């Protein structure tokens, strides 16, 4: 609410009636128009940095110039939403234009007028050059409609909004153009059926709507007031929606919304509420809440934000919640800017009820409470069967009945009842019953101390009376259900009796024995040392003489299921290893523990790994070994063998020795422990009677590459074979695989054989062999024959290899749909062409590698069609490079081009586009399409004609005959046509518009606001000729002139001169003089000479040019018939402080006279020279203030007043001397305040000056508020102006805070390690160590400047030593992490 152009208005969709006694009018429905600052049917054009805060839209044309302009909301360019908005704008415009006028403004000049709500009609042009006042007369939503029949010009505008008037309800309905001049401002909703122009720097608070034209913007600001809304809610009370208990927690919700249609900045919400603040949250990140002000920051259009406050109600009576929302801009819809809620808070709970809680039936007792603040009434009640007498509002006397219950008291006020206070009372009808058994040790060790004996509470007992054996001492608990005692001497009986207000009940007793020593330790524990987790196990020891109890302990996670306290327990095994232990005890103590280590297992052993051992055996083999890797939790291994096999050693272990039989089968093994048997591992073994069969064929290359490695030769596995023996030619070597079915070899240079034999326990097979012949290189220089690149579908063609050296294999591939007729695997292949293009490829290989060669082939089905039209320039400049092209012709694989004689094809022959160098001869460019099936039957032709040079110079530009005003339309500029020119390019000054003729010899333009040059350039194919330019300067509406010379009291009958400062762009000056005066000369010029008559009046002058007339400059004149009398006296102070402003005036003046004042040297007249009163700034020294009366007939004698300038003691700077040791201290330098005798200090509200008021130095205790520390110096006569400083309370803070992380990455945030409040301790030392303890940084008097010194990311250790206020050194240590 603080900025003239701060927000966008809120217009409700629909019709709203505005009614008063003088004017009743209905606002139009804007609908979608509400969203826009600028809306046009044709286009919106911007130049420069225009800022539009709402949306921008066009229905049928472009939006140009954004960027550099900025649209803060949405851009609707020729879309459905813009079309809808324009349709609704036309309806609104028609509605506004149809309203009957309540007044007609005949002259169309709006400056100086005051408008009240109504409809105003201007039957011509309208202009605004001055102040326009809108007076809403206190009406709600007062509306103003201004109908303009022709144009609207806003030149200079000042707006005053009175009595509820708002720009949101101002509507301009203009039939023709609207222009807002340079630097001017406009408000309201401006509808135009033509164009709207915002000149340089003009501003708008409202909307621009060009329903049938365009909008032009230049470095403008378009804005509208935002409508901020606040609503409140709260959680309901526990005693009703609006009724709460004292101390109850309630949550307030403050919701704000920007109803737009623009974004708003600086949104703040002051909040007042009942209760102590407990917590708050905001839905909008980055906002703050001080406890009474919510700083919400920026709030976008339609954005909502909520502040949720939780409080505890701490005051009974009426509660409230109030909030007000505002932003940086104005808000013309004020009804929803604030809201409030009220509710009721009940009284707090009453204090404790005092009186006995246990009573005897039929006895009388008194109960009372303390007074409750704010209570007006107290209500008491007692249990059923009881009676009471009111002693006072806060005290009663009761007679106890037989029923247990509560004495209840409730305080109340006008909001209702507060929480009731209950006091439970229990009546007793007689003494209590006998207690149950006494709990406590029945046997003791001699010299035992601090033993406890207890009983269960006895119904109706209020106390207990204990007795113990002789010599024993009751330490605590007498009167309660439990006592602690020190036993001494012998045993005896512990006894207790219950007591209540009605008497003592029957007693209970316990006999106690005393022992002399503890029992011995148990013997060894019997039980498993493993156990399965989750299973059960038993542990026991032999009975121990003299033991009263057995205390067993098991590892963590184990459970004792039964037997605790006995010599045998049953346990559930847990997962932890540890000890099972037991101690025995009696009253004299506990024996040493006996332990048994245990290591439980969680499951049966894991699956075993593979079994190693022979898979194929001979039936007579003995001593075969099979094994698996041992597993940690296994206790045993269970082996199983084929029938007839015998384990000779190792049963139960992870390795066995066996004798084979003639049977094959499975060997398997499983690991076993307390949790069971693990998964079995197995292998299948075979047993044979004889040697293996001959291996099958050897697989591998017969033409391996010399010296190559990893060449593989392999065979299929031979039944019953356990190994294989390979051989290779001399010079070859087997690198891996000997003994297996596959070997890797390194190839030598010799030819020979690769052989292999199969081996088993029963013998060796015959060999299998492969002949090999190594080669030295892979195929090289493989090439396919030329030709056959473009073929016709179905044709048979051949492709062959030109050089087949060292090629062992030939693999041909053809495109899909083609067929290899013959030759696959040979150097030449014959194929039949299919219908698709593709690749013919050959892969040639030998043992050293492969070589692949490809050939692209194109298939045609018919000769190509004729080419289409040739694209390119027909009129060209000779010797220039030109490009010509055609669209690709379906089926064509090449193109044949021709050019005129003397022209040269530079590149592109055979393609669809060529580059040529033009010659001097005219002629035709032709092109023919070609493919494998033939040529096209027609060619394409383009006639071309070269030109020799650029156009000749333009002789002159023909201009309008007279001067013109900025914005004047249809100004014609033209030249004589040049015979060799093909086009003309015109340029006009910035802000001017070429409305027609661009490219021709004559243009029509609309003048802009600034002068400049109009230029034109002729061009042809060889380029642009020289540019011809002329200077142009439009006139602007004249400013009101200022009368700079001429007497206000001319002498009657004497010639007097009046003049104004002449300005450029003025055609004439029109002067007016009072009745009876005569203008002797100069009418129409800037200076006139007049002969004054005796009549007083006004000298007026108006400047005129093609744009119209200015406002009138006026000089009030009172003719004088003689020299005026001298002033009677000068009134004003004689002694004045130097530098102060002071007023001097004449005691009584002469009518019509001016006054010529003078002051002492160094003094300055700031205002009033020529009038009866002047304002003076005092200088140093003394002198006279003098004045003479002056008229056109001469000057009077001077009248003077002697004056003296008194020096002022003025301090220049307040120094903040605050430290944690001295507190907040502020000081001025005495030497800089010469002559000062007293100093008057000021501090913020709530702060306290502890010492020094009146002196140059003060000590201050801060308060909660913010503000300034100020001081004024005085020397007894004059006081200085106050100077001030913003205090920093942190300078007195003793705390030092060391951040544990910073990010030195040069992004401007946390780039150095800043220790909070370190500046308060300038004597300091800082050392940084890395993780190995090495010093990486050190500084004395550290100033928060360490930037990590290019250290790597990680954590470092710091040691800081600070000199404290008492002179001692304090060390701070910790870690700091660098994150880059």
TrEMBL record:
Q: Which UniProt keywords apply?
A: Signal
Question: Is Signal one of the keywords?
Answer: yes
Question: Where does the UniProt annotation place the signal sequence?
Answer: 1-24
Q: Which residues form the DUF11 domain?
A: 241-342
Location of the PKD-like domain: 350-424, 431-512, 519-598, 605-685, 691-772, 783-856, 863-944, 951-1032, 1038-1117, 1124-1203, 1209-1281
Q: Which InterPro entries match?
A: Ice-bd_prot, Ig-like_fold, OmcB-like_DUF11, PKD_6, T9SS_type_B
The family line of this record is: Belongs to the ice-binding protein family.
Q: What is this protein called?
A: DUF3494 domain-containing protein
UniProt organism field: Pontibacter diazotrophicus
């Amino acid at each position: 609410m603080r900025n003239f152009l701060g927000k966008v208005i809120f217009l409700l969709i629909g019709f709203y009636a505005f009614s008063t006694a003088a004017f009743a009018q209905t606002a139009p429905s804007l609908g979608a128009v509400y969203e826009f600052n600028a809306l046009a049917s044709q286009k919106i054009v911007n130049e420069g940095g225009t800022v539009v805060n709402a949306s921008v839209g066009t229905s049928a044309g472009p939006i140009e110039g954004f960027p550099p302009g900025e649209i803060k909301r949405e851009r609707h360019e020729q879309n459905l939403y813009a079309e809808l908005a324009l349709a609704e704008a036309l309806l609104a415009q028609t509605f506004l234009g149809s309203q009957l006028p309540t007044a007609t403004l005949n002259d169309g000049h709006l400056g100086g007028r005051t408008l009240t709500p109504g409809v105003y009609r201007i039957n011509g042009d309208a202009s605004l050059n001055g102040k326009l006042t809108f007076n809403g007369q206190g009406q709600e939503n007062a509306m103003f409609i201004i109908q303009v029949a022709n144009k609207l010009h806003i030149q200079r505008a000042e707006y005053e909004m009175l009595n509820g008037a708002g720009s949101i309800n101002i509507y301009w309905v203009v039939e023709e153009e609207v222009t807002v001049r340079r630097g001017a401002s406009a408000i309201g909703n401006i509808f135009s059926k033509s164009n709207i122009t915002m000149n340089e720097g003009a501003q708008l608070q409202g909307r621009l709507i060009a329903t049938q034209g365009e909008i032009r913007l230049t470095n403008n600001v378009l804005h509208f007031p935002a409508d901020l809304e606040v609503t409140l809610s709260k959680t309901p009370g526990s005693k009703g929606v609006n009724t709460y208990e004292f101390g109850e927690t309630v949550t307030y919700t403050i919701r704000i919304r920007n109803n737009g249609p623009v974004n708003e900045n600086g949104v703040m919400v002051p909040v007042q509420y009942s209760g102590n603040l407990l917590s708050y949250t905001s839905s909008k990140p980055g906002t703050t809440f001080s406890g009474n002000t919510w700083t919400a920051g920026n709030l976008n259009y339609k954005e909502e934000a909520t502040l949720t406050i939780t409080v505890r109600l701490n005051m009974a009576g009426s509660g409230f919640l109030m909030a007000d929302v505002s932003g940086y801009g104005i808000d013309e819809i004020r009804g929803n800017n604030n809201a409030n809620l009220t509710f009721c808070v009940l009284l707090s709970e009453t204090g404790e009820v005092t009186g006995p809680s246990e009573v005897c039936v039929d006895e009388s007792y008194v109960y009372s409470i303390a007074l409750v603040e704010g209570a007006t009434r107290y209500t008491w009640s007692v249990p059923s069967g009881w009676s009471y007498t009111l002693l006072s509002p806060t005290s009663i006397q009761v007679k106890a009945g037989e029923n247990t219950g509560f004495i209840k008291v409730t305080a109340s006020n006008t909001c209702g009842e507060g929480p009731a206070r209950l006091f439970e009372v229990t009546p007793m009808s007689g003494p209590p019953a006998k207690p149950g058994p006494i709990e406590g040790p029945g046997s003791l060790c001699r010299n035992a101390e601090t033993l406890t004996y207890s009983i269960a509470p006895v119904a109706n007992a209020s106390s207990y009376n204990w007795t113990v054996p002789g010599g024993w001492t009751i330490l605590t608990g007498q009167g309660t259900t439990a006592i602690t005692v020190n036993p001494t001497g012998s045993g005896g009986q512990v006894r207790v009796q219950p007591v209540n207000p009605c008497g003592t009940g029957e007693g209970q007793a316990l006999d106690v024995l005393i022992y002399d020593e503890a029992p011995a330790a148990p013997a060894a524990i019997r039980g498993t040392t493993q156990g399965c987790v989750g299973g059960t196990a038993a542990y026991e020891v032999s009975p121990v003489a003299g033991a009263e109890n057995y205390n067993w302990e098991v590892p963590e996670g184990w459970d004792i299921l039964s037997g605790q306290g006995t010599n045998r327990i049953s346990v559930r095994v847990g997962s932890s290893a540890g000890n099972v232990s037991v101690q025995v005890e009696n009253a004299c103590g506990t024996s040493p523990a006996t332990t048994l280590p245990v290591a439980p297992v969680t499951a049966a052993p894991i699956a075993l790994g593979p079994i190693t051992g022979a898979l194929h055996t001979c039936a007579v083999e003995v001593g075969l070994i099979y094994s698996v890797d041992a597993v940690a939790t296994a206790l045993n291994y269970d082996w199983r063998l084929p029938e007839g096999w015998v384990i000779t050693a190792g049963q139960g272990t992870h390795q066995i020795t066996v004798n084979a039989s003639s049977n094959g089968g499975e060997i398997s093994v499983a690991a076993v422990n307390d949790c069971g048997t693990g998964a079995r591992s197995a292998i299948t073994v075979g047993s044979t009677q004889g040697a293996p069969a001959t291996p099958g064929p050897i697989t591998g290359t017969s033409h391996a590459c010399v010296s190559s490695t990893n060449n593989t030769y392999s065979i299929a596995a031979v039944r019953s074979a356990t190994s294989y023996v390979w051989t290779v030619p001399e010079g070859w070597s087997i690198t891996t695989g000997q003994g297996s079915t596959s070997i890797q070899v390194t190839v030598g240079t010799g030819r020979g054989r690769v052989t292999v034999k199969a081996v088993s326990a029963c013998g060796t097979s015959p060999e299998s062999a492969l002949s090999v012949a190594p080669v030295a290189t892979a195929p090289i220089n493989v090439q396919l024959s030329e030709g056959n690149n473009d073929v016709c579908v179905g044709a048979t063609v051949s492709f062959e290899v030109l050089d087949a050296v060292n090629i062992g294999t030939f693999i041909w591939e053809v495109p899909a749909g083609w067929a290899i007729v013959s030759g696959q695997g040979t150097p030449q292949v014959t194929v039949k062409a299919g219908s698709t293009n593709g690749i013919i490829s050959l892969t040639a290989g030998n043992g050293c590698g492969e070589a692949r060669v490809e050939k692209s082939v194109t298939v045609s089905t018919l000769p190509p069609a004729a080419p289409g039209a040739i694209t390119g320039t027909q009129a060209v400049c000779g010797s220039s490079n030109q490009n010509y092209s055609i669209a690709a012709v379906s089926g064509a694989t090449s193109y044949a081009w021709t050019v005129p004689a003397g022209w040269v094809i530079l590149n592109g022959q055979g393609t669809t586009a060529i580059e040529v160098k033009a010659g001097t001869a005219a002629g035709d460019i032709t092109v023919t399409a070609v493919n494998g099936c033939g040529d096209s039957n027609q060619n394409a032709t383009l006639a071309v004609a070269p030109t020799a040079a650029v156009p000749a110079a333009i002789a002159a530009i023909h201009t309008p005959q007279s001067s013109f005003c900025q914005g004047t339309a249809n100004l014609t500029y033209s030249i004589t046509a040049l015979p060799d020119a093909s086009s003309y390019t015109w340029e006009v000054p910035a802000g001017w518009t070429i409305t027609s003729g661009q490219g021709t010899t004559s243009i029509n333009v609309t003048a802009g606001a600034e002068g400049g040059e109009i230029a034109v350039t002729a061009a042809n194919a060889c380029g642009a000729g020289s540019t011809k330019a002329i200077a142009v300067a439009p006139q602007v509406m004249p400013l009101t002139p200022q009368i700079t010379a001429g007497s206000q009291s001319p002498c009657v009958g004497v010639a007097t001169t009046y003049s104004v400062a002449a300005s450029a762009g003025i055609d004439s000056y029109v002067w007016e003089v009072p009745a009876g005066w005569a203008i002797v000369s100069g009418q129409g010029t800037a200076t006139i000479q007049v002969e004054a008559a005796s009549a007083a009046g006004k000298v007026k002058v108006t400047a005129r040019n093609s744009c119209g007339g200015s406002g009138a400059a006026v000089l009030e004149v009172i003719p004088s018939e003689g020299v005026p009398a001298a002033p009677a006296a000068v009134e004003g102070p004689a002694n004045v402080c130097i530098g102060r402003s002071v007023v001097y005036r004449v005691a009584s003046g002469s009518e019509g006279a001016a006054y010529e004042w003078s002051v002492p040297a160094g003094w300055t007249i700031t205002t009033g020279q020529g009038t009866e009163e002047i304002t003076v700034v005092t200088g140093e020294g003394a002198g006279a203030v003098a004045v003479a009366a002056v008229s056109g007939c001469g000057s009077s004698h001077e009248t003077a007043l002697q004056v003296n300038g008194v020096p002022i003691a003025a301090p220049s700077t307040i120094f903040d001397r605050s430290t944690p040791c001295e507190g907040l201290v502020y000081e001025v330098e005495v030497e800089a305040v010469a002559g000062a005798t007293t100093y008057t200090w000021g501090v913020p509200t709530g702060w306290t000056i502890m010492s020094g008021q009146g002196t140059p130095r003060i000590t201050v205790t801060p308060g909660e508020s913010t503000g300034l520390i100020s001081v004024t110096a005085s020397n007894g006569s004059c006081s200085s102006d106050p100077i001030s400083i913003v205090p920093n309370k942190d300078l007195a803070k003793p705390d030092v805070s060391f951040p544990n992380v910073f990010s030195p990455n040069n992004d401007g945030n946390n780039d150095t390690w800043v220790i909070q409040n370190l500046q308060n301790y300038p004597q300091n030392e800082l050392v940084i160590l890395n993780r190995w303890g090495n010093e990486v940084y050190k500084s004395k008097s550290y100033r928060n400047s360490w930037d990590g010194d290019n250290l790597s990311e990680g954590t470092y250790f710091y040691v800081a030593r600070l000199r404290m206020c008492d002179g001692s050194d304090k060390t701070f240590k910790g870690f700091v992490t660098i994150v880059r």
